[in-house]
Design goal:
ABC transporter involved in vitamin B12 uptake, BtuC; mainly alpha; 340 residues; 0% strand
Length: 340
Amino acid sequence: MSHTDTSRRFALSVDRRFCIVAILSIGSLLIVALLTLTIGKLGIPVTELPQALVGRAEGQTAFVLERLRGPRLATAVLAGALLGVSGALFQTVTRNPLGSPDVIGLGAGAGAGVALMTLSFPLFPSSLGAVLGAAIATLAVYVCTGRGFRSPARTIIAGIAVAAMAAAIIEYVVSTQLRDAASQLAAYLVGSLNASNGQDVLVTLGAVVLILPAAIAVSRDVSLLEMGDDTASGVGIDPNRTRSIAVILSVLAGGAAVAAAGPISFVALTAPQIARRLLKTSNTSVFSSALTGALILTAADLAAQQAPLVAGLPVGVLTLGVGGIYLGYLLVRERSKGRL
């Protein structure tokens, strides 16, 4: 058998698996979305849902779909997808499974940016503060490590320091705000979808429309960076330019997600790795990571709304608990491989 035939069979196998995983992910996402809209005390009856989705709902059904569960569900899907994209790009470009926006304090920095914007420049949109805060936090970790993001141990230590500084800023803003404003800000900074509205949907939708195609377009070049800068340069790729584009897209995606839903932890860390294992490949698929991130966040939010033991908790608390366990597993694994 020729090398060409083997390559074609491998490509067909990868494409087939990618399609199967994508279909299953979308199907699971639709099931979670259906449950989110229909179960519980205010659930929309399944028989009324088709009419409601085409804009013919009235009374309580219209209120639940348009004001309560609809915006919350849409924000969860879009913000989860953005977090998945952010994590996929960052982990690939740093060649580090711990090189997640969560670990480097990107979410905390974005939250601090929102807090400062709320305190000092209330007329400006909070999304601007989120993106600026995320960018500053990322730059601070990059500078503090002395080696960029290539050393997992240094990245984690610098990320902890940056997150601590961001937390101090957040605490300062919360303590100086009026009581009502401070309570709303504190609830947002936990990571919550409770107050999602049409503006949050528009922010995340706009970010997905702009960032996802760009991330998919650059993903091939970013994947080649995993083989080393010399190899990438040998096939005509500018490593520094590609890395810069990927980091900028990652920061924008993470910042937009935080602007809408608060600093929800560990979705960006886990989504790309789950997607990689489902695809059984060492390369990270941006599209699959986006679908996985959307599914993780919508499922977590469904649990936060309906699961008996955790109902009423902000979704960020759930992802923090589960993601913290996964982070511990990653640390143990990386240490056993001598990478820490």
